[in-house]
Amino acid sequence: MRSSNWSCLLINGDTVSADPLLAVMDGILKQATSNVVDAAGTPISKTLLQSMLKTLPSEHLRDKKAMRFLTRHWLSRRFRYTASMGCEPSLSDAP
Question: How far is 61 from 58, CA to CA, in rounded Å?
Fold first, then answer.
């Protein structure tokens, strides 16, 4: 199995899926039941990322340098570039 398949399964897995790969297990999105931020389709922005951090219990905020946001590589690059230009990053568009 390719690594991209593993990451897809880890994130999008759903045991009731018609897709045999996704039906192997429930992924992170299916298992997340607490500390969830509903972005309601808004693009990723600094404000959204900050609201995500605010939902975390304090014990998970002790080592912020070890924290990671999982996202697509192009989205991460575009977010960093936009932020470095002093703009409020808004990244709804595909590359």
Answer: 5
- Residue 19 tokens read as 């897709």
Residue 89: the pLDDT is 55
pTM above 0.85, yes or no: no
* Per-residue 3-state assignment (H helix, E strand, C coil) for 1-31: CCHHHHHHHHHHCCCCCCCCCHHHCCCHHHH
User: Based on C-alpha coordinates, what's the Rg of the chain?
Assistant: 15
Please check whether residue 89 is in contact with residue 83, taking contact to mean a CB–CB distance below 8 angstroms: yes
Q: Which residue has the tokens 């590359």?
A: 95
Locate the domains of the chain by residue range: 1-33, 35-95
**Amino acid in position 22:** L
The one-letter amino acid code at 65 reads K
The neighbour count for residue 13, using CB atoms within 10 Å, is: 20
